[in-house]
Known about the structure:
Helix 5 crosses helix 6 (155-169), helix 7 packs across helix 18 and helix 12 packs across helix 13. The chain is built from 18 helices and 18 strands. The strands form four sheets. Strands 5-6-7-3-8-9 form a six-stranded mixed beta sheet, with helices on both faces. A six-stranded mixed beta sheet has the order 14-15-16-12-17-18, with helices on both faces. A three-stranded antiparallel beta sheet has the order 2-1-4, with no helix packed on it. The longest helix has 36 residues, at 234-269. With 536 residues, it is α/β, with parallel strands linked by helices.
Amino acid sequence: MLSIRDLKMSVAGRVLFENASMQVNYGDRVALVGPNGAGKSTLFSIILKRNTPDEGGVERDAWTMVGYLPQEGEAVGEETVLEVATGRAAEVPALEKKLKELEQAGTVDSPEYMEAHAKFDALNDPQVEAKAKKMLKGLGYRETDFARPAKEMSGGWVMRAHLARLLVMEPDLLLLDEPTNHLDLLALLWLQNYLKNYSGAVLLISHDRQFMDEIITEVYEIADRKLHAYTGNYSDFLRQREERYEQQVAAYKNQQKEIQALQEFADRFRSVASKASQAMSKLKQIERMELIEKPTPPRKPFRFQIPPPPRGGQRAISLEGIHMAYGANVVYTGLDLTVERGERTVLVGPNGAGKSTLLKIIAGVVEPQKGVRDLGHNAKLGYFSQHRAGTLDPNKTVLEECLASAPMLREDEARGILGSFMFRREEIYKPTGVLSGGEKSRLNLIKFLVDPPNLLLMDEPTTHLDITTVESLTLALEKYEGTLLFISHDVHCIRRLATKVLHVSGGKITPYAGGYDYFLEKTGSVDDARAALTAE
C-alpha cells in the first residue's frame, strides 16, 4: 500500500531523515513515534506529496485512497455540522473541480485522478448522510447539533466534524495526527473501538499511550535519522527498544575491545621485523571493519521529587448551593461538593458538561451567581489552566522564571527539570515574552511542580507535552503529597493518578470512590461506546 525507500530529508539545514525506509500494508495499525521536532509531521507531508524529499521516494498503490486529519482543523464557512461531515459544502465541490481539471489535462489514468474519484464517489453515496450522522453521534454530537453552523462551535468540535467526514469516506489509509486531542473520554473510547474494527490501514501520530496500546500493532520510531520498526503496541515497543539498545551497546563494546586488541598488537610489533607483516595485517583488519556507531540511549522520563507542600486541614475545600449559568445556559443548580485532603480526583464527562467551569469555581477564577465557596484550613491553592500566559514576566528568561518560583532550587536542578519539559540548551535563556502558547503552558506547569500548592487544580495538563514528558509529569504527580483535582483525556495518566472519579453530566456530579476502571465498570461506558459504534 505504502512504501518509503531510502528517504533523505533536510529542513532548514538540519537532516531529519537519511536512508530511512518503512512499509505500511493493508489493514496495518502503525504508530509513528519520536520526540517533538524529530520529523513526524514532515513525514506525513511527504506521504501526502506536499513536500518533496531530497533523496528517495514514496510509492503508493495506484488505487489507494488516503485520508488525512491534521492537528489544526480547516477553516469553515457557513456550512452546518452535517454538511462538514458529508463534505457537501466544501469537499464535494472541490473534488468535482479537481476531476474536471484532470480530465481536461488528459490525466484520467493517473493515481491522483483515481483517488479524487474514489473520494467523490464515497461522498455521493446514497447512504452518506446516514453514515455521517452515525459518526457524529459516536464522536459526541447530539442530533440537535447537526443543523447548527459549524463556525458557531469550538475548534475541537469542528475537528470532530472533519474526522467524521474522513470516517464516512473510509479511506484505504488513514493518516491521523493527534486525533484524540479534542475528544472527551467517551468519544475517545468510541474512536478507539471504531479503529480496532476499521477495514483500512491506520498511520498514527499520538501522545496518548493507552490509545496506542489499544489499537496499534506496529511502531516506527524516528531515531538517529532512521525509521526503526518494532512489532506490537506502544508498551511492546518500549520493551523491545530497551532490548535493542542493550544489544547495540554489547555489540559496540565488543567491537571496540577487538579494535583495541588489534591496535595494541600492531603498535607493539610493527617495528619487529619478524612480526611486521602480522602487525600490518591487524591494521588492515581494522580498516575492513564496518564500524558500529556508539548507540544513543533511548530518551527516558525525567524523575524528580515534587517538594512536600504545606499541610492543610482535613477538608481542602467545599462548595455549597452553587448556581452557575451563562445567560440562558444553566450549568449548575444547587451544587454541593466537598474535597478532602489527599484525594486524587479526576473530573470526567462529555465536552460542554461543565468540568472546566467547576474547576474555575473551585479555583475562585469564576464567581457563581449563588452559593458559598469555602477554602479549608491553611489551604494553598494552585490552578493550572491552558491560558496562563499573563502569569509570566515577559522580560524574564525561562530559567529566571523557574528559579524565581522556588528560591531554594539549585540552578542545575532547574536546568534538569526544564530539560525534561523540552526546554534545552539556549532555550532556557529565551525571554518568556517570545514563547509560544505551548511553551508558556509547559513553563507554568514547571512553576507549579517546583513550588507546589497543597490543593492542585489542573485542566488538561498533558496538552503540548510529548509522550516521554507526559510520563515525567505522571511520575512526579504520583509522588505528590497534596490534594489533586484534574481534568484529562489521557487514559494512561488517569489510570495512574486518579483514586476517585467525579462524573459531570447534565448539571449533576456523581462521585465514584474508585479509579477509572471502577468508574467504567459501574457506568458501562465502554459498552456505551461500543453500542454507539454498532448503532444503525
